[in-house]
Amino acid sequence: MKALVAVVAAGMVSCSMLAFTPTSAIAVEQSASEKSSATKNKRVKRAQTMREQVFKRLEVARDLADKNQYAEALEELESLERMRRNSYEKAMTYNMVAYVHFNQEDYPGAIKAYEQLIAIDNIPESLEQNTLYSLAKLYLIGEDYKKALGPLNRWFGLVEKPSAEAYVLRAQIYFQLEQFKKALPDIKVAISEEKAKGKKPRENWLMLERAIYYQNRDFVSLARCLQDLATYYPKGQYWMQLSAVYSELGKPMKELSTLETAYDKGLLDKENQLISLVQALLSQEVPYKAARILSKGMKDGQIEDNARNLSMLGDAWMLAKEYDKAIVVMAKAAKASGKGDDYFKLAQIHTERQEWKQALTNVDNALKDNKVKNRDSVRTLKGLVLFNMDNLEAAEKVFVSLKKDRPEDRMAAQWLTYIQGEKQRRAYMAEVQ
């Protein structure tokens, strides 16, 4: 499961990535809202007009704001409060107030103005839609996700065909509120709409979908999402995450094929990525290819030739029965680490080659390390080496010691029986001669 942590870490969509454009301060297209309302069989709101004097005052305020003269712009708008205005003119005044505050990055001020705007009755539906959408984004920027959801859901109730971006926005809000099951349908709608248009879904949309599947513990769907990410946006990290998901699903061959595909595409260039591939190859008993990849990575400077990696390379060459290469590498690993485990591996290779003297030297070095793993296995190997060096007395002492420490050790008992038989055979042969 630890290998999947990165899946969530990059799944968030930053609020700073959200496009934000304040509602136009002067013009509102009322015919579009009337058409939308008629389509939904709603009562068509009676259109109101803006008087020229109000229009000009709003234009002055906008020009001042665009020149960064915010205090003067707000003074101009405050003076409008003393005028008698219809609901449309009041709404456009609040809209301009929000515009001025937004340009100053005074988001609470902009929110307050928008809240006052949507509280007005009989405003054009298109203005209400734009304001609700902008209000939701402002709450999202301020990370007030619960409040963002209210105006956004009202907006969804007004528009005939919400955009894919709007579905993503609501999915993000649900995600932040940890309502992951509610977030899923919205992000799926947005992505499917893009695919239906023959377009590739945006990367951050797929990243959000990926994070939602992870939170829902739906690893089958997570794998499908990561396949999309790896296909549309071929990056090593997505292939690595996909392999981690296959590992979580208990599909080691798919895990391996995913890593191999990424490697063949030249997408794995970091040490941890290459080591993951090597470990997957070794787990599926493909040691020769694992060794080749490790060797190339070290030669190209992508993999550090430290004791740990050299030991892994030695293991790979040994499993591939490339003993000449294994000895060279494992000797370097043992010298670099000084660990008994590496000397033990080196002793095993020399034993395979029946190089008994070298095997004994390395097995003794292994036993000098009090932290060596499987110490009894190391002692057993020493007894075997001594026997093959025809030193029966020394070999017998090793197995007697093992049997004393571990009475249940059947191998030590078998060796002792064998050695006793060999000693008797030799004694008999000496008497006969």
TrEMBL record:
<dbReference type="Pfam" id="PF12895">
    <property type="entry name" value="ANAPC3"/>
</dbReference>
<dbReference type="InterPro" id="IPR011990">
    <property type="entry name" value="TPR-like_helical_dom_sf"/>
</dbReference>
<keyword id="KW-0732">Signal</keyword>
<feature type="signal peptide">
    <location>
        <begin position="1"/>
        <end position="19"/>
    </location>
</feature>
<protein>
    <recommendedName>
        <fullName>Tetratricopeptide repeat protein</fullName>
    </recommendedName>
</protein>
<dbReference type="InterPro" id="IPR019734">
    <property type="entry name" value="TPR_rpt"/>
</dbReference>
